[in-house]
Write a sequence for this structure.
């Protein structure tokens, strides 16, 4: 297995860890468990996803300032900030979950489509 596949697997595991922490932070009834899901599962998993993502971009020869890289970072930070806010303020409804989860759909779209600044700006 090559280096690219190993890093890609680590990114996938990080993304699944973040998704698992996000879901656990909304379904758990105990506030301490919800905070633990965010701070010990979701946030470290997001950091692992970022590191692996940057490694993949570097291995692929992509610039770190491309629209899809910067947009993915911004949306993932937004998701994590919303998640921390929801857990700290005990918000658990569908709307709160959607606000934390929907930016991840945008991240997936950016990672798949890889739009560049040249495609967006004239």
């Amino acid at each position: 297995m090559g280096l690219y596949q190993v890093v890609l697997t680590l990114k996938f595991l990080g993304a699944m860890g973040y998704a698992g922490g996000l879901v656990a932070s909304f379904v758990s009834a105990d506030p301490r468990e919800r905070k633990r899901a965010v701070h010990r599962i979701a946030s470290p998993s997001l950091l692992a996803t970022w590191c692996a993502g940057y490694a993949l971009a570097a291995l692929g020869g992509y610039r770190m300032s491309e629209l899809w890289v910067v947009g993915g970072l911004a949306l993932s930070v937004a998701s994590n900030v919303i998640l921390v806010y929801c857990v700290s303020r005990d918000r658990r409804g569908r709307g709160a979950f959607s606000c934390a989860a929907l930016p991840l759909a945008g991240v997936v779209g950016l990672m798949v489509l890889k739009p560049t600044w040249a495609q967006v700006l004239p």
Remarks:
- The longest helix spans residues 31-60.
- DSSP finds five helices and no strands in the chain.
